[in-house]
Amino acid sequence: MDYxxxxxxxxEIELYYSLPDDKHFDELNEELEANGTFAKNRKIxxxxxxxFNSVSDSxxxxxxxxxxxxxxxxxxxxxxxxxxxxxxxEKVIYxxxxxINDYIKNEKLDEELNWMMKFYSxxxxxxxxxxxxxxxxxxxxxxxxxxxxxxxxxxKLPQGTMRNRGQMGxxxxxxxxxx
Length: 179
What we know:
Blueprint: H1 5-17, H2 25-34, H3 37-54, H4 58-77, H5 80-83, H6 90-105, H7 111-120, H8 124-131, H9 136-144, H10 166-174
């Protein structure tokens, strides 16, 4: 394993900023498949899980898990040509959700992961397709979210909180979570 949270973030951001914006979306998907962007993002997703499994530092584990969960969600709610993410490994998705299921069961969600999960749960189908009838604590969590309430901290986090956090960081910066 020759990667870190920082190196995976840099790869994600490099791939994201290299997405062409001058073609029709049909052509974009073909190009992103042909040039390896989709495959590279799939590998990054898998590498985050490998990183999670290989370290003992709980802060690194939490961050890797947050990024996996974000990529799971983002890959389903935004078009492939917009994110450069397509056809993520469903075993990785399920494994990451099973970890979240255990975290919920054992009340181990930190504040940030909690509000992120509530936000992602607004698109319940993106999670329930993997959790329903298999991951009871996650399923219950998703179904209990009140989607009429904004669950993320708009303009409340310190500047720089989302820096160097891959596409997850870029997304949350665009959602104006930082002051």
